[in-house]
Amino acid sequence: MTIPATALCIILGMMPLLILPALPSVGWLVAATAAALIALRGPLPLRYVGATLLAGCWGVFIAHQSLEPANDNTWRNQQVEAVILATDGATTHTVNIIKREGRWLPGAIPVTLYGSYLPEPACPGQRWAMSVALRPVHGQLNEGGFDNQRHALSQGRTLTGRMLHASVLDASCSLRGGYIASVSSALARYEWRDVILALGFGERLNVSDEVKTLMRDTGTAHLMAISGLHIALAGGIGWGGARLLQRGLPARRIGHRFPLIAGLVLSALYTWLAGGNPPALRTFIALTICGAISLSGRQWSGWQRWLCCIGGILLIDPLTALSQSLWLSALAVAALLFWYQWVPFRPGACCRPVRILYGMLHLQAGITLLLIPLQIAIFHGISLTSLLANLIAVPGITFVSVPLILGGMVLHLLPLPAAEQGIWWLADSSLELLFSALGSLPTGWLDVDERWQWLAFAPWCAIVLWRLKLAAALPGVTASLLCAALFPLFRPAEQGRWTVHMLDVGHGLAMVIERNGRAILYDTGNSWAGGDSGKQTIIPWLHWHHLQPEGIILSHEHLDHRGGLDSILTTWPMLPVRSPLGWAGHLPCERGQAWRWQELSFTVHWPLPGQRRTGNNGSCVVTVDDGQHSMLLTGDIEADAELAMLKHHWQFMRADIIQVPHHGSRTSSTAALLGQVDGSAALASVARYNAWRLPSEKVIERYLRRGYRWSDTAHAGQISVNFSAHGWQIARYREHILPRWYHQWFGVSAVSG
């Protein structure tokens, strides 16, 4: 087997980590490993199968190992010793736990701690004694939303936690930490200090949301971190410096090995300065593999080198297969190889500056067109200004800002304060000009829904059809491919079907009633400093599913139910809002009201007419009915109001499904309500780690005794109920919509707080 073929087997062997619903057992792993070793001793085709299977076993073994800390009694408060890796200077700290309950651990456990200030300023490398409450990583799961659990596992961080108490044991910073602190102090008076630290050291915790949003909207977010481009640039500087040194040497002393080794050494140093963040580390591994291939004298093609780099990265860290940034980088390189092979750059007879400009346009056009499928799959949108923005930002950051920052980092080590401040000023000014230019571009971000996923591959197909001249030779095949890609855009809605989605918004409530491409919202989730559920979850979810909202029902005024209202109304200003609050512009929501929407009947049961109740007991309670099946939406109504509602309106309360009142609190869900509704399923919107430890176990038992099937968003993620003439079905994200091993409920299943 050749090395590139082995690398391909490794890549194929790791792919099941992306789609396995559950990790195979240890017994299966042992049997599969034995079978793979036997296959490796057989004929060549069987060796390929054996190598692929062995790589898959290695990936599954590492996945099992990564989950051990998350399943190791994480509900108890623990005394640990930890080394600071990174801190935002406020309430977010990344640490390595090296001792637990006084015992040294065989390997450090990385943990991100949230919500508490350290008692004194900290820097990377310090060792602290801490009392911590550790918990397994857990993320909100919605179709088309950010997958926090997958991201955390791809980074090797399966634990988060809360710091209860801390005291410093060793206040000395690491060499890197002290250097970063010193450079940060020298940059204190510069406006773009946080961006300089991000580009120089990969420290992005303090970069403002405005800068991140601007770079996302212009398609230049890949330049913000220390990425492959910057590590490769450092390696190129090392290679170029070595070549300059060789100019002064006799010919017999000049060889190709010294520049390669010098480039790798400098790229390794820059990777260390970046804190070994995954993109930088992956780039260094790839550069090392490419360097080893060059030193060996093998004349391999770009595709063979690409296979070896991806295979090597996955062999060293199999869980990198879960990383979206890996596949974005890998596809970017593959797109360049494909682009220059199938659409070669032929500038013709023109002057050098024009050739350079044409070359940049040619390169950026290829990247922009060929990365559309992955951009839609990951970011659910594309930047219409990315071509122009990258023509400005890529050379500006790569050839101006980053070299200036690297120069400032070197000068900071020398007793030349004037020169250092001069170069920092130049770096700051270059970033000011760059972001001013990006900010002057029109808003270019375009949200794209899931129907466009297959059509996004059109540039790849068009290039192949054009170069092979298949469009004219096989017009039927070309037309069939185009129709297949366009079909989702014109697929008719299924008649008679409607769906209620309970979105996973943590502690809060946000429900979407969907029919015929239209939607009604019942509550809008929570809000917090710097964001809300509307902006983070509901609006992207509606865009991704190509749903047009036509109204909002607001149950009551508590923030966890109306937190996303302003963001949603900013996006769709003309949406009518119905609530019991009596606020300006709101339609009333009180008993006796009924209306039709998309052939569904809405009936309000509470509050009583003329009453302006506030708080939970003022919740607008609504039944949605199609004539055969119904669902009761209850907001946060509590026991007193439940009994009063039944007294006035008991004969209309029956429903197949109930939204559990008040997130499953023991103050709600009385036996009288459950008996009168007489439903079959109960859905609760709760957060796993909520301060109130909801839902109450007694409430869950009460529903189960009454014959209800219980589901909650903490365990299930997004919950969707599909109604049709044939009945209704519940689909849970973790079990039905996208069951994956990395979506499981890690840790102790009985603990929600």
TrEMBL record:
<feature type="transmembrane region" description="Helical">
    <location>
        <begin position="388"/>
        <end position="411"/>
    </location>
</feature>
<dbReference type="InterPro" id="IPR052159">
    <property type="entry name" value="Competence_DNA_uptake"/>
</dbReference>
<keyword id="KW-1003">Cell membrane</keyword>
<feature type="transmembrane region" description="Helical">
    <location>
        <begin position="46"/>
        <end position="67"/>
    </location>
</feature>
<dbReference type="InterPro" id="IPR001279">
    <property type="entry name" value="Metallo-B-lactamas"/>
</dbReference>
<dbReference type="InterPro" id="IPR036866">
    <property type="entry name" value="RibonucZ/Hydroxyglut_hydro"/>
</dbReference>
<keyword id="KW-1133">Transmembrane helix</keyword>
<feature type="domain" description="Metallo-beta-lactamase">
    <location>
        <begin position="507"/>
        <end position="688"/>
    </location>
</feature>
<feature type="transmembrane region" description="Helical">
    <location>
        <begin position="221"/>
        <end position="242"/>
    </location>
</feature>
<dbReference type="Pfam" id="PF03772">
    <property type="entry name" value="Competence"/>
</dbReference>
<feature type="transmembrane region" description="Helical">
    <location>
        <begin position="254"/>
        <end position="273"/>
    </location>
</feature>
<dbReference type="InterPro" id="IPR025405">
    <property type="entry name" value="DUF4131"/>
</dbReference>
<feature type="transmembrane region" description="Helical">
    <location>
        <begin position="326"/>
        <end position="345"/>
    </location>
</feature>
<dbReference type="InterPro" id="IPR004477">
    <property type="entry name" value="ComEC_N"/>
</dbReference>
<protein>
    <submittedName>
        <fullName>ComEC family protein</fullName>
    </submittedName>
</protein>
<dbReference type="Pfam" id="PF13567">
    <property type="entry name" value="DUF4131"/>
</dbReference>
<dbReference type="InterPro" id="IPR004797">
    <property type="entry name" value="Competence_ComEC/Rec2"/>
</dbReference>
<feature type="transmembrane region" description="Helical">
    <location>
        <begin position="18"/>
        <end position="39"/>
    </location>
</feature>
<dbReference type="Pfam" id="PF00753">
    <property type="entry name" value="Lactamase_B"/>
</dbReference>
<feature type="transmembrane region" description="Helical">
    <location>
        <begin position="357"/>
        <end position="382"/>
    </location>
</feature>
<keyword id="KW-0472">Membrane</keyword>
<keyword id="KW-0812">Transmembrane</keyword>
<feature type="transmembrane region" description="Helical">
    <location>
        <begin position="279"/>
        <end position="296"/>
    </location>
</feature>
<dbReference type="InterPro" id="IPR035681">
    <property type="entry name" value="ComA-like_MBL"/>
</dbReference>
